Amino acid sequence: MNTTVAGRTLPGLAADYAGARAESYAQSIPWYAWTSVLATACISAGLYWDISWHLSIGRDTFWTPAHLLIQFGAVLGGGAAATLIFSKTFFTPGAAAKESSVRVLGFWGPLGAFLSAWGAAAMLISAPFDNWWHNNYGLDVKIISPPHQLLGVGIESISFGGIILIAGYMNRADGALRRRLSLLLLTIGGCVTVNSMVGRLQFTDRALMHSALMYLWLAIGPPFVLEAVARPTGLKWARTIVAAFYTVVFTLGVWIFPLFAAEPKLGPVYQRITHMVPLGFPILLLA
User: Fold this and answer.
1) CA–CA distances in Å: residue 109 to residues 86, 95, 97, 103, 178
2) What is the pTM for the complete model shown?
3) 134 pairs with which residues across the strands?
4) How do residues 48-61 score in pLDDT, each as one tens digit?
5) d(CA 57, CA 51)
6) pLDDT tens digits, 214-224
7) DSSP β-bridge partners for residue 261
8) How far is residue 44's CA from residue 37's CA, in Å, rounded to a whole number?
């Protein structure tokens, strides 16, 4: 039996294969999956840039490009989540709104959307909180501080909200669409791994490599991220792909950031700095 696909007449099995392939590619990745990945990627790049900025220049103002990139990720992730929730609640018929949704305070939407929206709110609140903290307690050089922890919780909520959104849609897809969503899930998992390792910089310094503290912090968090994004995909070498993503990002940082000039604006400075300081060679999660 002949079948016409895209204006061409194909016989037998070739027609069946081409038809199935065309139907599979007709299904597109949902827009909120792309916004989740983009928001998490902006946050990851902004976090790396921000720590390097503090190491090289200091905390001169909130309105640095790195801070703005992080908060752009919050606005993008939170805005997409709010759009999804409001569309489910106000513009979707009752039965359809309840499908693959949960109800929170009278609103309907995917669980991942609620997590992302809450995380965006926490991130935006952390900005004035951080300014207030510095104005009252002075500038600090620590990653672990109350406003930074609120920021970190918000980042994790946006990131895992995106993971849950993509994984939920992936579980209802099949064929080529499922494979593309699996790769997207590994990409956002790589960004989350970067965020997780940036948050552990204070405890993974070279000076701590002979202490149990560093390995304790590495054992809490990163393995969970690797497993959480790798297991749903069912892809071979999924955990290695996520670890390789983190390795590539940190390696590119080592190569690229020193190409840009920078000098400290805050003292005391015990070592002359003439360029942006990268965050060091990546921990060998690949091993």
Assistant:
1) 8, 12, 7, 7, 22
2) 0.82
3) none
4) 998 888 888 877 67
5) 10
6) 888 888 888 88
7) 275
8) 10
